[in-house]
Amino acid sequence: MAPNEIISPADKMALRAKQADIPASGESKTAGRKRFEPEMREHVIKAATRAIEAKGLEGLKARPIAQRAGISVGSIYNLFGDLDELTRVINGRTYDALYEIERSALEQAREAGKTSREQMMDLAAAYLDFVETHQAIWLACLAFNRNQTDLPPQWYLDKEQALFRIIEDAIATFPGAQELEARQNNARALWASIHGIVTVAVADGFLMQPIANVWTQIQIIVNAVAGSLEGE
Amino acid sequence: MAPNEIISPADKMALRAKQADIPASGESKTAGRKRFEPEMREHVIKAATRAIEAKGLEGLKARPIAQRAGISVGSIYNLFGDLDELTRVINGRTYDALYEIERSALEQAREAGKTSREQMMDLAAAYLDFVETHQAIWLACLAFNRNQTDLPPQWYLDKEQALFRIIEDAIATFPGAQELEARQNNARALWASIHGIVTVAVADGFLMQPIANVWTQIQIIVNAVAGSLEGE
DNA sequence: CAGATAAATGAACATTGTTCAAGTAAAAAA
DNA sequence: TTTTTTACTTGAACAATGTTCATTTATCTG
């Protein structure tokens, strides 16, 4: 029910039992229900998310998802139009979850009176931690975006944009670099760099190098950019 | 015939005509040839490359490729085992081509007596130019790697590794950072950052921002890292 | 209760990757 | 030359998958 899903590590087990029962009950004399959309959508999203976590984006198949959610294949298409849309909804929640984490990381850093450099460091750490914790679901975002041939819908782009704006906010607090365009380029450069470091590290779905090295590389970039912005 | 393929912008037209004729000739009374493998492989690779360029990695379908190459579907599997292997061969050539470009960019920069910072700038520029010029084929590399669930073969990893080592070479010439591990982390951090900037820019197969901005962002990072390494 | 409505169903279709028994041209053997 | 063997090509057939839609069914409305 919360806007960010991402497993919600606590209630996971409780929900799992509940979900597993729903499809098993009865002999499927269940055609023609009404007004069940909201709950059903959630069931499908949960089942699809679990599939992605277990077997990557390739693991998201219409028929198994339908079975796990206790509905028919056709209903998935009633609810989402097609599998791409279902994936987009899941990815959107992933973006939301990451957004909340980054927002609160920045907020906490500021309340703790940290420097701009430290704020950026905390943002990067939060990102690395997120990707490490939700590797499959995050790789699904990237893989999906790569495979699309036309532009995604606006609401999807907006969620991606929102992530950049957090970094812009953090960068805005630096003494130098005040003009809007420079600030945007600095924010994009820094965010894309951290993103690049993290995704090269988890390329092919595996950690290709020790996490400590990844963190070192992030520090190199953040320190370099911070030092450059501080004009020192 | 050259080890790097990538369209070879010159002979393109000549080859195109030649290729188009080969399948069209005769009434396909061509079962049971012998010792034709090498040429056939090239035909298939060319046809597949063109398909990727035109319609992305999704555009690589067995049947159309077979038809364009003038052979049957089965022969593709005789030659490559499966489509993934065909893709890997194409991507391998892409890596080779980029490697050559980067190597010669570095060499030229050194011969021109450029500073370490300028050398890195030239490497980054060469990379950006390559991706801009061969967008589809490069995105195919990234998309393919993302979709794989198990580790690629060693020869494939080696080609990827080779690209990092060029940056390591460039970074090795900086006055500071001499220890091997620090140098490797610096190289990886910088290369992954540039990679991140470029790929975020071409995300979803489109240039999401003006190329000038992308270049500005690269300069921000290279200058920041260079400044940091120069200890200034 | 009867009709209208909204939604769920799952068989059927289209598209793909992949396999493999059968066929065929070239080389080798006779 | 004729026959046998070899090596490769072929394309029909299969399995897995995304997607559609006529039919069925539950619920709502009067």
Characteristics:
elongated, Tetracycline Repressor, domain 2, DNA-binding, disordered N terminus, 2 domains, mainly alpha, homodimer, 0% strand
What's the layout of helices and strands?
The structure is a homodimer.
Chain A: H1 12-24, H2 37-55, H3 62-69, H4 73-80, H5 83-111, H6 116-133, H7 135-147, H8 154-172, H9 180-201, H10 211-229
Helix pairs in contact in A: 2-3, 2-7, 5-6, 5-7, 5-8, 6-7, 6-9, 6-10, 8-9, 9-10
Chain A binds a DNA duplex (30 and 30 nucleotides) through helix 4.
Describe the structure.
Two copies of one chain form a homodimer. With 232 residues, chain A is mainly alpha-helical. Chain A folds into two domains: 9-80, no CATH class; 88-230, Tetracycline Repressor, domain 2, CATH 1.10.357. Chain A is 72% helix and 0% strand. The first copy, chain A, contains ten helices and no strands. Chain A has helices at 12-24, 37-55, 62-69, 73-80, 83-111, 116-133, 135-147, 154-172, 180-201, 211-229. In chain A, helix 2 (37-55) crosses helix 3. The longest helix of chain A has 29 residues, at 83-111. The radius of gyration of chain A is 20 Å and the shape is elongated. The termini of chain A are far apart. Residues 1-29 of chain A have low confidence and may be disordered. The A-B interface holds A 55-58, 139, 142-143, 145-149, 151-152, 185-186, 188-197, 199-201, 203-206, 209, 213, 216-218, 220-221, 223-225, 227-228 and B 55-58, 139, 142-143, 145-149, 151-152, 185-186, 188-197, 199-201, 203-206, 209, 213, 216-218, 220-221, 223-225, 227-228. Chain A binds a DNA duplex (30 and 30 nucleotides) through residues 28-37, 61-63, 71-75, 77-78, 82-83.
